[in-house]
Amino acid sequence: MLLQRRRPRRGRSAVRLAIASAVALVLARAAFAFDPFVVRDIRIEGVQRTEPGTVFSYLPVKVGDRLTEDGASEAVRALFATGFFRDVRLEVEGDVLVVYVEERPAIASVSIVGAKEFDEETLKRVLRDQGLGESRIFDRSVLERAEQELKRQYLARGRYAASVTSTITPLERNRVGIVLTIDEGEVARIGAIRFVGNKAFTEKQLLEEMRLTTPNWFTWYSKADQYSREKFAGDLEALRSFYLDRGYLEFEVQSTQVSITPDRERVELTISVREGEQFRVSGVSFGGTLLGREAEFAELVALKPGDVFSGARLTESTRRISDRLGQLGYAFANVNAVPSVDREKREVSFEILVDPARRAYVRRINITGNSRTRDEVIRRELRQYEDAWYDANKIRLSRERVSRLGYFTDVRIDTQPVPDAPDQVDLNVVVTEQPTGNVTFGVGFSSTEKVILSASLNQQNFMGTGKSLGLNINTSKLFRTVAVSYSDPYFTPDGVSRSFDLYTRTYNASELDLGDYRIRSSGIGLRFGVPYTEHDRISFGMVAERNEVKLGALAPDRYIQQVADFGESANALLAVAGWSRDTRDSALIPTRGRLQSASVDVTLPVGDLRYWRAIYKQEWYYPLSRDYTIALYGDIGVGDSFGGVPYPLFKNFYAGGIGSVRGYYPSSLGPKDTEQLLSGGTRLVPLGGQSRLVGSAEFIFPLPGTGSDRSIRSFVFLDAGNVFSDTSIDLGELRYSTGVGLNWLSPIGPLKLSIAYPLNKETGDRTQRLQFQIGTGF
Question: Does the N-terminal or the C-terminal CB of the chain have fewer CB atoms within 10 Å?
């Protein structure tokens, strides 16, 4: 744009100030001189994108000012400092100051080619932080800095051979397009790790504490032989903890050296350490405000006089004391251990300073994140109340109870001080909801068997009330089920639950060549549940049931006898009772705790049947670390008759398949009967049994490449189990299987996948290797 104000000339000859570069700018005063004059007008020329007003705002000279040689130099310097212009020139026409500028080009686009280690948007964000981005002024020095920063990003990932080449393409309207071509090269692998100065522990022992390692048979998968700065820093901290936990109080890493081979593909690490002496604990004392609980605090200290010092045990001791103070209402307690070192005796004593601060009570509990779930559904699970003393135990229990609802993928309770009230805190309960309604589809595959399909429609948190409503439909050829259930977990304000069930279940053995018969059970039930501790609940109720048996021409002899004993239909009225205990930290992704349940069904002296059935199930989770968990599952069931009436075969237990002994065909294990075929041959068909024993062990770990994402977990497992013809259990008849599997809380619902291999298949056993189940949430 051109801003021009015409004024009459005064006859003064034009004086030109030419400054072509920053060096010329410095010499401007010496090279060009002119008589000072009063500026009557200012004209800007050469601008294309920049508004003249922007130039005026940076120009230190105004109309009416007296322009001197120093003022002219300062004006040129100020315009150059904006970074907008490649050249600035001042001219004087009479008493008019003419500012000629040449703008730097603008960046029209920035493209990145060849990036695989990082996604393109991450790298563009790095470039923008360096000042290189679309619509910004192009500056070659900024481009060079951006190139170096990209290289640093790759160096941090161990890619020392990475290179960045930039291509600048001029475009119309004084713009440029920039293309950054990245050659990532190979990740530098570790050729050797050496230690200098270690005496107490061998190099092999120290290497076991590090995640980084030299190449071995497993590093193709773990990538532990690929050097990165972050991993190395983490390993150095692990070494410090290792020595500190073994009494080396003054251990330090003196220096580290990272050597790169000329081809930039191999790295050699040298770690120089100073171990110092091993220290033992000479004594532990207490100071500060102890609230008369010094003896109680002393019991919580994991270090005793004479023990080898351990940093981990000291940290655990101060945490225990802090937690105990939290249980007493001291939300902001400070517990610090101050060491006193005797180097001659190689002993260290500690004074644990306790500052409980003020005892606090909870002013308000705020709940956020529950867009669907009503506040009362969460609040009724809380054991920390408003206007009550702060209690860390009750807060922990509250978080666990809300997690066990199964409505949320994450539950967090944060403590927030109340401004100007040192004895008050607010609790913020932050939940992340997951879809509690789901349509689930299940399918199993075998190279020799048919496809099994199932579906269910459930709403565990109906309209956000915490009540559950479900419709389960199993359309498989073997099991066909239609079941409607409704449960209100807080039928009374004290937490007594009430549930209704209406169902019809069909076991059609003939469809999958498991026998020429069909069993249909239909019933209606009413149950109540009563909590009597924070973790325990008992239940009781009544179920009215009708069972029908339809036999084919080739039905097994035992089912023919069953119909002879009871007829094609038999009715029963059952009293049901149960107990459950749940101490898991989460219902969705448990990592610690235990779930146990026991139930007993007994027929009343009404109807045709006389039998009882008892079932006990347990799940036990033990965390080995933050990412690794061991899980043990058990299921035992026993049933028998009384009153001289035979035990009904349609109440038998079954085993085999997903949720039981994986690797074997569903419901195919246990006693079998011989059935005649129309072709004249025979076949074995499973009958189930009066008792069942199933157990499973799983080692659960993150899926490689997913970090610590708990929504997707992989596992290896060992299953064992079988069913038996009577109430006796023969451990020698157990079937075993092993394999790998995957659990994923996917965007379309929970997915389970397992690949199982039977370990002791016997003649007549049928197998099924691959099984998966997937659902979709709503």
Answer: C
Q: At which residue do the structure tokens 């020329």 appear? A: 45
Q: Which two tokens stand for residue 687?
A: 């009958």
Give the Cα separation of 736 and 695 in Å (integer).
10
Nearest 5°: CA angle at 727, between 721 and 730?
Answer: 45
For residue 714, report the phi and psi dihedrals to the nearest 5 degrees.
-110, 165
Written as six digits, the tokens of 40 are 């009557």
407 and 295 housed in the same domain = no
The CATH number of residue 233's host domain is 3.10.20.310
Q: Report residue 406 as tokens.
A: 């199964």
Kindly report the length of the chain. 778
Greatest Cα pair distance in the chain:
135
237: Cβ contacts below 8 Å, ≥ 6 apart: none
pTM of the predicted protein model: 0.54
Q: Is residue 416 part of a domain?
A: yes
- Verify that 605 and 568 share a domain, yes or no: yes
Q: Measured between alpha carbons, how far is 665 from 650 in angstroms, rounded to an integer? A: 19
pLDDT in tens, 173-195: 788 899 999 988 877 888 899 99
Number of domains in the chain: 6
Average pLDDT, integer, range 700-707 = 72
Q: Does residue 8 sit within a domain?
A: no
176 and 33 within one domain: no
Q: Which residues make Cβ contacts (< 8 Å) with residue 354, sequence separation at least 6? A: 286, 287, 288, 289, 290, 297, 321, 325, 333, 334, 335
Structure tokens that stand for 199 in this block? 């005496």
Two tokens, residue 252: 């330090």
Pairing mode, strands 452-459 and 468-475: antiparallel
Structural tokens at position 450 = 């048919």
Lookup: tokens for 29: 């005063």
The residue type at 347: E
Span 155-178, pLDDT tens digits: 877 788 888 999 999 888 788 899
Range of the domain at 393: 361-433
3-state secondary structure 114-173: CCCCCCHHHHHHHHHHCCCCCCCECCHHHHHHHHHHHHHHHHHCCCCCCEEEEEEEEECC
**Torsion angle, alpha carbons of 357, 358, 359, 365, to 10:** -100
Q: In angstroms, rounded to a whole number, what is the distance separating the alpha carbons of residues 97 and 4? A: 10
CATH assignment at residue 648: 2.40.160.50
3-state secondary structure of 28: helix
Residues 81 and 114 in one domain: no
713 neighbors 589 (Cβ within 8 angstroms) = yes
358 neighbors 389 (Cβ within 8 angstroms): no
Classify residue 653 by its DSSP letter.
B
* pLDDT, averaged across the chain: 83
Does 727 lie in the same domain as 623? yes
